[in-house]
Amino acid sequence: MPEPNDARNLRDSKEAGLLRLVIVDDEPLARNTLRLLARLDPEVVVVAECGNGTEAIQSILEHRPDLVFLDVQMPELDGFAVLEALADQAPAIVFVTAYDQYAIRAFEVHALDYLLKPFSDERFEKALARAKKLVRHNRPDETRRNLAALTAAHRVTTRRFMVRSAGRVVFLKAEEIDWIEAADYYARLHAGGHSYLLRESMNDLEAALDPEVFVRIHRSAIVNLDRVREMRPLFRGEQMVILGDGTQLRMSRSRREELESRFRRG
Questions:
Q1: Which of 25, 73, 113, 254 could form a disulfide with 30 if both were Cys (CB 3.0 to 4.6 A apart)?
Q2: Alpha-carbon distance 219 to 201, whole Å?
Q3: Residue 108, SS3?
Q4: b/e for 87-99, b at 16 or more Cβ within 10 A?
Q5: Which pLDDT belongs to residue 217?
Q6: Sign of the torsion angle spanned by Cα atoms 56, 57, 61, 67
Q7: Which SS3 state, helix, strand or coil, does residue 219 take?
Q8: Quick one: how far is CA 223 from the chain centroid?
Q9: Which of 20, 26, 17 lies closest to 5, judged by CA?
Q10: pLDDT in tens, 184-193
Q11: At a CB cut-off of 8 Å and minimum separation 6, what does 257 contact?
Q12: DSSP per residue over 187-218, as a string?
């Protein structure tokens, strides 16, 4: 359940001109770190801490905070689902995330700040300072537009694919895809021993797919990380990626570091 900040009088926080903060993260250690750093700022009061998305929605509606430090990756109800549920009642948001560079670009484009775990004290201070400036300028319409654009961008990564095959229309979930190959002006989706042509470029698919699940290993191939079984060296730094069904795909030398870093992050 949300934990009130016992160090300050919450009733008087708004009257005192303090920035009211809610912390949302499913990791107790992360919540503790955020709380301790926030309390170093005399202009901030932590009004609640939440360990999941459901608690976050209830707490935000109850406390009406000025700012929320919101974890992106949480079980059952993630940070994006929290924002969608709040809709136009969402306050200013600083994301706390372990997402890679693709998601971070999305945050930057929509002018929302983020903390990439693990973050330094200095990075936290910078994020908080930017958030305080936004709140003080009182631009709720701009904040809502930014949040709506970000949640819309996130929904693209969770979509289904509608493909035609032998006179039928097949609805394919993204997670069912084993790998994707370039096919002239099309892309060929391989899933469970079947393949489907989709009129979409590899660049557009790479941007649309969840970067935590899919990685591009060659200009002509994208793989589902869950299907990768092993890598074998070839020559000149290139590798052969072997999938669980035995499919062998060549990986460019420039793509190797990205694939290995994904697996190191678990």
A1: 25
A2: 11
A3: helix
A4: eeebbbbbbbbeb
A5: 93
A6: positive
A7: coil
A8: 19
A9: 20
A10: 878 999 999 9
A11: none
A12: EEEEETTEEEEES--HHHHHHHS-TTTEEEEE
Q: Strand 221-224 to strand 179-183: parallel, antiparallel, or no bridges (unpaired)?
A: antiparallel
Highest mean pLDDT among 22-31, 210-219, 257-266: 22-31
Residue type at 3? Answer: E
Residue 60 backbone dihedrals phi, psi, to 5 degrees: -65, -40
Instruction: Tell me the HSE value of 202 on the side-chain side, using a 13 A CA sphere.
Output: 17
- Residues 33-63: pLDDT tens digits? 999 999 999 999 999 999 999 999 999 999 9
The pair of structure tokens assigned to 88 is 């136009």
Contact criterion met (CB below 8 Å) for 50 and 62:
no
pLDDT, mean of residues 133-152: 64
Mean pLDDT of all residues belonging to the chain: 81
Which stretches does DSSP call E strand in the chain? 19-24, 44-50, 67-71, 92-97, 113-116, 160-165, 168-173, 179-183, 186-191, 194-198, 214-218, 221-224, 228-233, 239-243, 248-251
Supply 116's token pair: 């990439």
Identify the DSSP state of 9.
-
Do residues 5 and 47 make contact, with C-beta atoms less than 8 angstroms apart? yes
Provide the 8-state DSSP code for 18. P
60-64, 69-73, 133-137: the lowest-pLDDT one: 133-137
Residue among 98, 75, 100, 115 at smallest CA distance from 215:
100
In angstroms, the CA 226 to CA 263 distance is: 10
Q: Are 111 and 149 in contact (CB under 8 A)?
A: no
Beta bridge partners of 191: 194
Sort residue 245 into left (φ over 0), alpha (ψ -120 to 50) or beta: alpha
